[in-house]
Design brief:
22% helix; elongated; 9 strands; alpha+beta; two-stranded antiparallel sheet
Length: 163
């Protein structure tokens, strides 16, 4: 028993004899949190005739009197892809008007294309807040475009986001 007690005391004494750990300071370390930007709410006065076809997250398709309406939110940064997604055309083949207010960039354009059921006219608007592209797009048969011009003017005039 004395041997065990003696070995125990020697073990305690030797436990304090280990090499001390050294630390080196390199400099201040900055931890950057990747914050996901908050998506704004879209403001839009939908026509009374708008009937929801599909809604998926921030995207919605409506059937209105003689035309289709698409609301879509895409990641900001690649405007060329956004234009091609909405219209099927590259930006260099369209005349795109850029305006802006309150820290937002707004892009508007129209196009025509041959569709399965005849020629169609499309109009699109994109609001860019630096994080997201908030998109409004309408497509109708060309022969209805004159009758829809006032409706579309009101629709696109009401398009905005709450920041």
């Amino acid at each position: 028993m004395k041997k065990i007690g003696f070995l125990f005391l020697i073990g305690l004494l030797l436990a304090g004899c280990s090499a001390a750990e050294t630390f080196e300071t390199i400099g201040p370390v900055q931890h950057v949190q990747n914050e996901v930007p908050v998506m704004a709410d879209v403001e839009l006065s939908l026509p009374e005739s708008a009937v929801v076809q599909t809604i998926a997250g921030a995207d919605a398709v409506y059937e209105c009197d003689g035309y289709m309406l698409l609301l879509q939110t895409l990641s900001s940064g690649d405007f060329k892809t956004t234009v091609q997604t909405l219209s099927g055309f590259l930006p260099e083949h369209l005349t795109i008007i850029q305006t802006g207010a309150d820290g937002l960039k707004r892009y508007d354009w129209v196009w025509t294309a041959a569709g399965e059921e005849g020629d169609v006219l499309g109009r699109a608007s994109v609001l860019d807040d630096g994080n997201y592209h908030y998109c409004l797009c309408v497509v109708a048969p060309v022969d209805q475009s004159t009758a829809l011009s006032e409706t579309w003017s009101q629709l696109f005039g009401s398009f905005g986001i709450q920041q």
